[in-house]
Amino acid sequence: MNKKEMFRILGKSSREKVIALAREVEANHTVHIVKQPAKTLVMLKMREPVANSQYFLGELLACEAMVKIGETRGMALTAGDDFDKVLAMAVIDAACNAGVPETDRITAELKEMAAAVKAEEEEEFARSMKSKVQFRVMEGQ
């Protein structure tokens, strides 16, 4: 699982599951906070499909944190202002980067969380499809 997918899953998962996963790592390893969780603003870059040009849509409130396990760093940046969740995400990132023994457990838990996120996305898509409008052109009748 690559970093982009890992953080997508962690970002969409419940804060309780993410924090519980980080607590398992913290119970067995010393975690040093390099950068305390803090609010920040991130510019949202979008691509305009017709001219294929990029523009900035606006700013997004985000939260970031950085930690170390031994000499290995882990960092996280997520939308919103949940300090506990972003700190837990940084701990999970550092654990995966360091290759701690809990990495296999983290990977297995991430796969379960991915299945739950996928089911939730499919349910949301199904709800939105109920409101889809079908247009028909009445030509030649």
Strand order of the largest sheet: 1-2-3
Helix share of residues?
Answer: 40-55%
- Based on CA inertia axes, which overall geometry fits? globular
In percent terms, what proportion of residues is strand?
25-35%
Oligomer: single chain
Radius of gyration: 20 Å
- Structural class, from helix and strand content? alpha+beta
Mean pLDDT over the residues: 91
**How many structural domains are formed by the residues?**
1
Largest sheet: 3 strands, antiparallel
**What gap, in angstroms, lies between the N and C termini?**
54 Å
Report the order of strands and helices.
HHEEEHH
Helix segment count? 4
Strand segment count? 3
Ranges where pLDDT stays below 50 over 5 or more residues in a row are none
Which helices and strands, and how do they pair?
Layout: H1 3-12, H2 15-28, E1 31-48, E2 53-69, E3 72-79, H3 83-98, H4 103-129
Antiparallel strand pairs: 1-2, 2-3
Helix pairs in contact: 1-4, 2-3
Task: Give your account of this protein's structure.
The chain is α+β, with helices and mostly antiparallel strands and 141 residues long. Helix content is 48%, strand content 30%. It is globular, with a radius of gyration of 20 Å. The mean pLDDT is 91.
What is this structure, in a nutshell?
This protein is an alpha+beta fold and 141 residues long. The chain has helices at 3-12, 15-28, 83-98, 103-129, and strands at residues 31-48, 53-69, 72-79. Helix 1 crosses helix 4 and helix 2 (15-28) crosses helix 3.
